[in-house]
């Protein structure tokens, strides 16, 4: 058939409207053929239902289906033509071959739609930015107001302490002066009496008890800790606001939820992957698995099959009451054989729990984290272009930690359920199909 086609002139395969090889050819009732899109555009622009070649008017616009025979013959001609051209041109040059009018029109429409979407998106972006500015104004105004009130309370407390001390000192000084005067008077009177009268007076009059002034002191630093306590109280307010904002942030990120499934070909031989590829647990014994370059052979890790190279993504993992686990992302190109350090410079951005209580961000060196509540579910959020990997407690929305870096490689979610330690850590890590509502 190819030899027969090669004998035909190219004009038999050209649309008279775009003068290019037919694309989805249709044939009018008068027997002329055109590209389906070219004919639609022609009728739309001219406002009449006539044949572009013979000008025959149709009483109503005919419903035209693709002429399959002509389409097949045209496709074979196209392939023959490309094969002939490939002897002289590179593939890059072939890709630059001009398209017919129908294809061009379709490309124009697609781009016009994209312009519309981008314009709509920038409106949404502006509204979002405005809301963020307004929220930040409200938050910081409230915090500044709280800070000013805290400072005023500290100043008022210090001044009150000072006034109380001054009053106490005035009272003590007056008491001392009175005793001094009494002592002076008594001493003067005693000197004027003879021995017999002095003895008689000492027996008949009992002197008033004097205060033991050796135990009377004045603390010169009465306000130690006032400023520190005010800062601690303010930080508690900041933390409460931070938790509220973190919860709102995670709620907004729900729309970026993606479906994540484990890739058994990457799993360490000690790991068992469930049939639905949503759960992984450590079996503490080696399983029969095929060796391949993608499989971890020393560290008990498993990667997800999804490769993430752009955009924003959120997934949630149920960790339950486990005492050891690792979660995060890793470069597709990371070393999977032998021993290595899990840290960003080696292509890992992960969070760990060790010994049931020690939360660690695997930076270099590792950073210990203090969590007020032990999460049962952890949300992992990747913003590729922003170079951000964040971890949240799914139940409370509390932000745990954020890595910031520049990503250029494809990234995969990565998981390690930790050794079972008997039955203490035997439960699996479970990838949730839907992120929980907070």
Automatic annotation (TrEMBL):
Residues 15-55 form the RING-type domain. SMART domains: PRY, RING, SPRY. Transmembrane segments: none annotated. Keywords: Coiled coil, Cytoplasm, Metal-binding, Zinc, Zinc-finger. Residues 155-200 form a coiled coil. Residues 240-434 form the B30.2/SPRY domain. GO terms for cellular component: cytoplasm. It is found in: Cytoplasm. Its main location: cytoplasm. One of its GO terms (molecular function) is zinc ion binding. Belongs to the TRIM/RBCC family. This is Bloodthirsty-related gene family. The lineage of its organism: Eukaryota, Metazoa, Chordata, Craniata, Vertebrata.
């Amino acid at each position: 058939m190819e030899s027969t086609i090669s004998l035909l002139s190219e004009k038999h395969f050209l649309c008279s409207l775009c003068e290019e090889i037919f694309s989805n050819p249709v044939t009018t009732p008068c027997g002329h053929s055109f590209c389906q899109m070219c004919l639609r555009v022609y009728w739309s622009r001219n406002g009449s239902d006539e044949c572009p070649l013979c000008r025959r008017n149709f009483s109503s616009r005919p419903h035209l289906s693709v002429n399959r025979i002509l389409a097949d013959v045209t496709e074979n001609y196209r392939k023959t033509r490309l094969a002939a051209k490939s002897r002289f041109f590179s593939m890059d040059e072939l890709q630059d071959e001009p398209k017919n009018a129908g294809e061009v029109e379709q490309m124009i429409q697609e781009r016009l739609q994209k312009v519309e979407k981008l314009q709509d998106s920038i409106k949404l972006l502006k509204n979002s930015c405005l809301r963020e500015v307004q929220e930040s104004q409200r938050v910081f105004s409230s915090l500044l107001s709280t800070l000013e009130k805290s400072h005023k309370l500290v100043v008022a407390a210090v001044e009150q302490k000072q006034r109380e001390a001054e009053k106490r000192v005035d009272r003590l000084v007056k008491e001392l002066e009175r005793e001094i005067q009494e002592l002076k008077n008594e001493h003067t009177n005693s000197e004027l009496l003879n021995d017999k009268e002095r003895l008689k007076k000492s027996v008949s009059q009992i002197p008033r008890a004097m205060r033991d002034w050796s135990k009377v002191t004045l603390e010169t630093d009465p306000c130690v800790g006032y400023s520190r306590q005010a800062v601690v109280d303010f930080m508690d307010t900041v933390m409460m606001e931070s938790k509220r904002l973190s919860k709102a942030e995670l709620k907004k990120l729900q729309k970026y939820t993606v479906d994540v499934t484990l890739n058994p070909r990457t799993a360490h031989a000690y790991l068992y992957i469930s049939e639905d590829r949503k759960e992984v647990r450590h079996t503490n014994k080696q399983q029969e698995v095929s060796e391949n370059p993608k499989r971890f052979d020393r560290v008990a890790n498993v990667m997800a099959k999804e490769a993430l190279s752009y955009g924003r993504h959120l997934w949630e993992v149920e960790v339950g009451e486990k005492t050891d686990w690792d979660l995060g992302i890793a470069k597709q190109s990371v070393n999977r054989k032998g021993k290595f350090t899990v840290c960003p410079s080696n292509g890992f951005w992960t969070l760990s729990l060790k010994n049931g209580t020690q939360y660690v961000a695997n930076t270099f060196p590792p950073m210990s984290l203090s969590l007020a509540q032990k999460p049962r579910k952890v949300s992992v959020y990747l913003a590729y272009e922003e170079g951000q990997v964040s971890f949240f407690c799914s139940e409370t929305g509390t932000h745990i930690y954020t890595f910031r870096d520049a990503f250029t490689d494809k990234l995969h979610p990565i998981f390690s359920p930790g050794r079972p330690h008997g039955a203490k850590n035997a439960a699996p890590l479970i990838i949730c199909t839907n992120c929980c509502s907070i």
